[in-house]
Design brief:
The chain has helices at residues 2-21, 33-40, 44-56, and strands at 30-31, 60-63, 67-70. By secondary structure, it is an alpha+beta fold. A three-stranded antiparallel sheet has the order 1-3-2.
Length: 71
């Protein structure tokens, strides 16, 4: 099951990157975690785990009182 969790995380990351490549997400755009669940087709828990990874990769920034901004 830990392998399944890792593959779920990897899948969420790949789906996010695909949204960027397909220009469904654009630099400067604000999104909520709920919107990301819909765009990625992933559960909220997976999106919450994905956010720190995206921040570390420089793909996403959390902006106080605004939400998540695509970098």
């Amino acid at each position: 099951t830990s392998e399944r969790i890792l593959s779920g995380r990897a899948e969420a990351y790949e789906r996010f990157c695909a949204q960027l490549r397909e220009a469904r997400l654009r630099a400067g755009q604000f999104v909520s975690q709920r919107e990301l669940t819909e765009l990625l087709g992933m559960p909220l828990a997976a999106v919450r785990e994905l956010v720190p990874r995206l921040e570390a990769a420089g793909l996403l920034v959390t902006v106080a009182k605004r939400g998540l901004q695509i970098a």
